């Protein structure tokens, strides 16, 4: 069975040494009291919960899956999930990043994000239950009426109730404008909602007394398309005025999907059979309200993939040190044993280091974005909030798509390290591959992310936000320009920065002629942009490692070598990506549809 | 449920138009009577069997898996597998490529290979039962005594019995030199064999009366390591002198593996508890004898991946034409519908064309190697046999690793085309991804393949065999040098040919200093070599397509566009691969093992 050791040291390195997070957070009125000890203590306790409570029920949860009782419409998650959830709320974990007004601890997004990385490493399927809840909390916090907030937020904060997001219908996922679920006003300010939803994560389970569904539906007079969608909150059990639970609302789980992975999470088909709900936000502005939840969810998906990359790496590295098989081509390295541990083989190391570099790069990026989100939410300065918000918007599709694509590569490499044993369920590593696969698809496919990045976040503002981020890179390049030891990192960083600028301009010009050029280049472009961002963080981490590597702490040596590996073996992927991005639309569109 | 349409036209194109296979085969004494009609008739009938009998039980077989009765040690494959197998032997299919002396039809390897591509598209898990049998047939045909051949070959040819290869043990897979299973002589020419084997595909089932296990084991006086391994044939039921079945041999299935995919195949743990067998080939030369089977199996694995790539492509293409979602960025393409079919989106086309190009390139390569294998086996000229054999040896690791890596990429892309629906079992496409994953690992991991290619097949003979293949490329480049329409294909082909030559020399030089440099570069190198080979075949196919595209047959237009796509979007991967291959060993070895 796989093991999980929370990477506390690397998390602390990123927070305290790379991002100087405490000083940054202290500038924000909401976090003026934060300190290093609090952060470290929370990380340590969260790590214990992840490794001791969640990791042991991950493999068994995958094998068992969830079960639906078709007569009662009730769902049982795998053994141990309910008990783990009870411990989770007992520990007060759901409240970590929530508003003190509703019982939350008001800690930074950054810390909540670090907690979730660990939960995801230990058990992605389980973590989706509280993860979806937190998303529902955020949407209601941002767009709910006072009444809705009073009714739902304390329970979501305590974790006594969980939440879902009910968007997808059988005929529409990416294109929510096509959705058909109907909401009819009942005249008392509430609505009767009827329709069928699918792919509802954490959609039904017996771990809590009530489930708060956020449902997209159409009002009777709604315009067609995405401008006619409204958001409703629909509880599983109606809530009485005194907060006690009332009658069962007809929002039923009618089926569970058989999925490639995340078996422990109940992916529900939900039938709304005249269920009663209330409107969240403005009529016909539901998609906008839901985007609060969706953007958080996209960062969350990157974080899921970061978690899987880390845990897959840890286990594959342990296996590679333990498993003996063949001799090094350069001669025996463990002559006392009948064969060498497979970590002597260069390609085994390459697979391991790929996962390690993608984990460390992903962590730096994820934490940077989380800290920036804290600024966007809590800065006292409106300009700083706006600037931070723009940067989060720019980086969100990269966090979601780049980290999830990387996790697919990394977990598969880690599985390969196990040889045939990796294909066997008991190894646990094939589960990481299967679980990670959904991350490339849900919350907006990675193609959708790439269009969001290149079309909406970059070209629509003529690259203004990208340029601001580019200035940070340029400043660092400038700053280290005379540092001899940094040249191996600074030169390729400067180079990829220039190339992204040129590539962006070139695609922008082509897109004037034909907007489909954006679609032809976007996926390649996103990976190039992702590498630029990773190169920036690896260069910055290498700088710290170079300064401290003689401290006697081998952590810095390892960090330096991982950065070197990244520049030598992963960043060069951009050479191909830039070519294919530049080769444009025509090789994709020549073939008539009928010939496919 | 996925559908499968045998790609008869493309198979016939490769055989008859690209490879001119019938004329080539007619030169071989064993196949002097072959003709186009026979080939096409066999393909058509084989395709019917695959699509009508095997495809319908693929998804259900995945869900059901195999069941072991722990008291009787008997295994039941999924519903329908036994009946399909009965139809398979009734149709005489196992005999297709077998020696007429033992009841075979003596048809070319090429044709058998084409049959297997279709069987694998329809149902890889099922196809492994006859596939392993055919491997056992080949090993016994090449190395068995007359007695063994007489006893086993007719039954393997008719399909009444099936075969296995029992190599792996819990502590050794890649490194068979470590194996521990013991063979003790019984004095009557037979041996008592004791040990534990794992990962035995098709290791136990109830589809036939007897199973012929080929088992690697050590004789009492055997030298340590891989030079002390002998090969034995161990039937499930002993065979009496009159050919009837005798008593049960103690070779028992003690467990079935829970795997990521190929659930319909019984991957057995096998206990040999003093089972009686006879020696195949020379004592202590078992690995060499087994390599006959293993080389065939490696080509077979490439063929499995080709099959999965093709079927995944077909289904994803159909889905992309049917599923409507969003509008093209360049404006509505199906204004009469509420949204456009997703095939209008450039990235959806990119994913589909990637799978299509990998299928068509893989088919050209696979069939070329199969035809070359026919020459190696059946040419009347010893020099031609030797030359063909060398070329097959060179290309085998490329067929195995390049096509299986490509299938992993392609099936995942096809799954992505389905959006969230691809993650659901019922779509069938996630099964293709899971099934394809084992192909990168078994029969020698893809890392092992890359070391075989670069170390053994290329550097050990100073690139002599590679140069011969390079001359074919150079001749084609020369021949088309003045053909204006071919420049878009010929120039990059010449370029990649040059680059492979330079890269090979450079790695060879480095390897003199440190043999581990081979291990650092080999995986990247194999993909570069694979692309060179694909570029060669796509250029040749493009030439035919250019000549015939005005014939009114849109097949040639599609072929031309697929070739253009390949050169524009896939071949450029080599730009990165060459860089990472050249960046060498040091970024992989700097980190101390303890720091992983």
TrEMBL record, chains A, B:
Domain Acyl-CoA dehydrogenase/oxidase C-terminal: 284-451
Keyword Thylakoid in annotation: no
Residue intervals of the Acyl-CoA oxidase/dehydrogenase middle domain: 165-273
Residue span(s) of domain Acyl-CoA dehydrogenase/oxidase N-terminal: 82-160
This protein's name: Acyl-CoA dehydrogenase C-terminal domain-containing protein
Lineage: Bacteria, Pseudomonadati, Pseudomonadota, Betaproteobacteria, Burkholderiales
Domain of life (superkingdom): Bacteria
InterPro entries registered for this protein in UniProt: Acyl-CoA_dh-like_C_dom (IPR025878), Acyl-CoA_Oxase/DH_mid-dom (IPR006091), Acyl-CoA_Oxase/DH_mid-dom_sf (IPR046373), AcylCo_DH-like_C (IPR036250), AcylCo_DH/oxidase_C (IPR009075), AcylCoA_DH/ox_N (IPR013786), AcylCoA_DH/ox_N_sf (IPR037069), AcylCoA_DH/oxidase_NM_dom_sf (IPR009100)
Names of required cofactors: FAD
Keywords carried by this UniProt record: FAD, Flavoprotein, Oxidoreductase
Chain ranges of the Acetyl-CoA dehydrogenase-like C-terminal domain: 471-592
Protein family per UniProt: Belongs to the acyl-CoA dehydrogenase family.
């Amino acid at each position: 069975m796989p093991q999980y050791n929370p990477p506390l040291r690397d998390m602390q390195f990123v927070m305290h040494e790379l991002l100087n997070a405490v000083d940054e957070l202290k500038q924000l009125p909401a976090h003026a009291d934060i300190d290093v000890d609090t952060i470290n203590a929370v990380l340590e306790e969260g790590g214990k919960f992840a490794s001791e409570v969640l990791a042991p029920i991950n493999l068994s949860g995958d094998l068992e899956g969830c079960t639906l009782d078709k007569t009662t419409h009730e769902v049982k998650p795998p053994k141990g999930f309910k008990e783990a959830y009870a411990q989770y709320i007992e520990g007060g974990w759901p409240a970590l990043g929530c508003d003190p007004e509703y019982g939350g601890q008001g800690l930074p997004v950054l810390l909540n994000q670090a907690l979730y990385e660990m939960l995801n490493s230990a058990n992605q399927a389980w973590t989706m239950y509280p993860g979806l809840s937190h998303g529902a909390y955020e949407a209601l916090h941002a767009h709910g009426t006072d009444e809705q907030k009073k009714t739902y937020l304390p329970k979501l904060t305590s974790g006594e109730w969980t939440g879902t997001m009910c968007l997808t219908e059988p005929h529409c996922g990416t294109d929510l404008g096509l959705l058909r679920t109907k909401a009819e006003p009942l005249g008392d300010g509430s609505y009767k909602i009827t329709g069928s939803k699918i792919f509802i994560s954490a959609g039904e389970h017996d771990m809590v007394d009530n489930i708060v569904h956020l449902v997209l539906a159409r009002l009777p007079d709604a315009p067609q398309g995405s401008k006619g969608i409204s958001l409703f909150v629909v509880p599983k059990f109606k809530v009485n005025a005194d907060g006690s639970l009332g009658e069962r609302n007809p929002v039923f789980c009618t089926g569970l999907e058989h999925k490639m992975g995340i078996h422990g999470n109940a992916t529900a088909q939900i039938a709304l059979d005249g269920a009663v709900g209330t409107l969240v936000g403005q009529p016909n502005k539901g998609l906008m309200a839901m985007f609060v939840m969706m953007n958080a969810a996209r960062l969350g998906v990157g974080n899921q993939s970061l978690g899987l990359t880390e845990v897959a790496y840890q286990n594959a590295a342990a296996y590679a040190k333990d498993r003996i098989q063949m001799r090094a081509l350069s001669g025996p390295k463990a002559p006392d044993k009948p064969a060498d541990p497979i970590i002597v083989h260069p390609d085994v190391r390459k697979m391991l280091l790929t996962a390690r570099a993608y984990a460390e790069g992903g962590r730096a990026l994820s934490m940077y974005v989380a800290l920036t989100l804290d600024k966007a939410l809590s800065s006292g300065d409106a300009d700083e909030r706006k600037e931070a918000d723009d940067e989060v918007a720019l980086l969100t599709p990269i966090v979601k798509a780049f980290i999830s694509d990387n996790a697919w590569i990394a977990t598969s490499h880690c599985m390969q390290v196990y040889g045939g044993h990796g294909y066997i369920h008991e190894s646990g590593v094939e589960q990481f591959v299967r679980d990670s696969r959904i991350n490339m698809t849900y919350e907006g496919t990675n193609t959708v992310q790439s269009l969001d990045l290149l079309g909406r976040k970059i070209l629509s503002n003529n690259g203004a936000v990208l340029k601001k981020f580019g200035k940070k890179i340029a400043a660092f390049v400038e700053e280290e320009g005379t540092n001899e030891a940094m040249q191996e990192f600074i030169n390729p960083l400067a180079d990829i920065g220039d190339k992204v600028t040129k590539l962006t301009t070139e695609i922008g010009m082509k897109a004037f002629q034909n907007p489909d050029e954006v679609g032809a280049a976007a996926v390649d472009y996103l990976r190039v942009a992702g590498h630029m961002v990773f190169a920036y963080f690896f260069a910055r981490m290498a700088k710290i490692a170079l300064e401290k590597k003689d401290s006697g702490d081998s952590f810095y040596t390892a960090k330096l070598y991982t950065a070197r590996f990244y520049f030598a073996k992963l960043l060069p992927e951009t050479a191909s990506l830039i070519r294919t991005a530049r080769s444009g639309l025509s090789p994709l569109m020549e073939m008539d549809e009928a010939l496919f």
